[in-house]
Design a protein that fits this description.
mainly alpha; globular; transmembrane helix; CvpA family protein; membrane; Colicin-V_CvpA; transmembrane
């Protein structure tokens, strides 16, 4: 197991524990929000990067990543504000053990999606390097989570192309 695997595993375990503490209901809303944030970011990063271009003095090859980061952070903030209000309603419910166990499962899903999005994002900056990727047991399986999630959302929404046909042209999944 490589250092990258250790980092991924620690993040997965922390999110699983947080999911257990939060329970299923909150985790479902949070993972839906993360999927939504990732989808919106992947779908509209190119457009937003072009809108931000006049205000930024960066090379064009970094613009999609800046647009992606801007949208991703904005969407996550919006989702967390909504979850805050939903959480106040959920507080009225008693959380049982099955709810907490299922919450830990959704915590794992959420963290794997988040790590996948981060790995794709940082690959544009050459991180991690090929040696680290090749020595990692978890890198390739985790990396596939964000494109697979995007494709699930794309199947549900009419007119949205799969990841390979739309997003991968400017933010590609590394090898």
């Amino acid at each position: 197991m490589s250092l990258l695997d250790g980092i991924i595993l620690i993040i997965l375990l922390v999110f699983a524990w947080k999911g257990f503490r939060n329970g299923l209901v909150k985790e479902v809303f949070r993972i839906a929000g993360l999927v939504l944030a990732g989808f919106v970011s992947f779908q509209y990063a190119d457009l937003v990067s072009q809108l931000l271009k006049p205000f930024l003095g960066v090379p064009d090859e970094f613009l999609p990543y800046i647009g992606f980061a801007f949208l991703f952070i904005f969407a996550l903030l919006a989702v967390h504000i909504a979850i805050f209000f939903i959480d106040s309603l959920i507080q009225l419910l008693l959380l049982s053990i099955p709810n907490k166990l299922l919450g830990s499962f959704f915590g794992l899903l959420k963290s794997s999606l988040f790590i996948s999005i981060l790995l794709i994002f940082f690959s544009g900056f050459g991180f991690p390097d090929n040696g680290i990727k090749q020595n990692s047991l978890l890198y390739k399986p985790i990396l596939k989570v964000a494109p697979a999630s995007y494709d699930i959302v794309a199947r549900v929404l009419p007119g949205v192309k799969p990841y390979k046909d739309s997003v991968e042209r400017y933010i590609s999944v590394p090898d």
